[in-house]
Amino acid sequence: MNHPCPAQAGYQVAAHAIGDAANRAVLDAYEAAGVGPGDRFRVEHAQILTDADLDRFAALKVIPSMQPGHCAADLGYALDRLGPDRAAGAYAWRRLLETDLLGGALPFGSDYPTAGDVDPRLGLHAAVTRQTPAGEPAGGFYPDQRVGNLRALRGYTRDAAFAAFREDDLGAVAPGYAADLSVFDVDLAVAAPAAILEAAVVATVVGGRVVYAPDGSPFAPHRAAVDAAPPDLSAADAAAIAAAGRAWEKRYARELAEDRFHAA
Q: 183-199 pLDDT, tens per residue?
């Protein structure tokens, strides 16, 4: 039986690949399927790439979706396990940005929930330093692959939205965009690495509602709004959203149980 390409069936595929062989296999599959720029297929992690495959993301219009925090977490063993030649293609953010990536996008994320509760400050710090929070290794792991503060922030915002076909309503603080944002007590666009790690959240806003603000924050008086539905949200819409959320949680729990079963 012939099966259509997932894109032809209306699906956007995000395949996980970490090692260089895995990344090549996924890129080969995408190429064989005839994936185009309108599909925005992704490779999640894309952590270790050969020289030959680094340019293929741009050529195939496939998006490398990466997690800077993994770079810092892996530094204790990455070089020993990969060797210097292969390690040169590990977490190769700058090398990928120098190619003609689709939409110029290099989306960043935290790998939540698989990686657990990951502090976003750790990912930003790793992106601009390629070091652990303790400052190791000195000078950074292949420091030529570091990105600047603004580039890192773009990865977590604008580029992440683009990768999900949401660039018209997420990923920017602008009229017409959903107010999904966090407010820090320092300017992360120019903050030194140490200041990134010490930055405090003074507010988290989701859909225009203040869902977190510590006591003393100028946003604290608005915290009560989190328990109230927006005035333009009907009871039917609120019920539908709640039902969808419960369905998602059930599906995730089922898939997680299946993963554990197969792993055992």
A: 999 999 999 999 999 99
Structural domain count of the chain: 1
C-alpha R_g of the chain? 20
Secondary structure (DSSP) of 184-237: ESS-TTT--HHHHHH--EEEEEETTEEEE--TTSTTGGGGGGGGS--TT--HHH
Give 249: exposed, middle or buried? Use CB within 10 Å, 0-12, 13-18, 19+. Answer: exposed
CA distance 221 to 215: 9
H/E element, 256: helix 235-263
Q: Tell me: the pLDDT tens digits for 13-67?
A: 999 999 999 999 999 999 999 999 999 999 999 999 999 999 999 999 999 999 9
Q: Would you say residue 183 lies in a domain?
A: no
**Domain at 102, CATH number:** 3.20.20.140
